[in-house]
Request: fold
Amino acid sequence: MAHQNNVPATISELFIRIALDRADLEAWATTLSEAQLSAPGKDGWAIKDHYVHLAVWEQSTAALLRHEPRYAIIGVQPGDPIPNETELNARIFAQSKDRSVDEALALFHSAHMELLNELAKLSDADLQKPFSHFAPGETSAYAQNPILEWLTGNTFEHYAEHIQWIGAMRNH
Reply:
């Protein structure tokens, strides 16, 4: 049974929620034209850029679950100061804006499989382990929060955020 606020309580529930909430993104990836996927919006981001953004955050989360530096994929090396979220997102965009639609969607799918493979190694009890268990030495405000919070924030909650933006873009 899911916890309050519809947060998954088990790894099985997490997998179901991820699959259900990702469905619109998957459908749009196959039904929108290359022109729709690559046309920049008002902020300069094309729909394909949203797909890459989600993919990179999923890769970062998979790295975290492997106890690896989670921001290396974004070009932040161990020991470097961690940029804030806005700066990280700007780096992701700058590094990937020139990707083709095919490259963006391939990354979107491969990163998701990478994350699912790492999630499959977790037990229900692992979901309640603190973030710092996966990132030893972590001192951020969320270091002692259950890893489940990071997982939901970088999967279905993140999808919902981008589904709104992509939905608005595809309707224009």
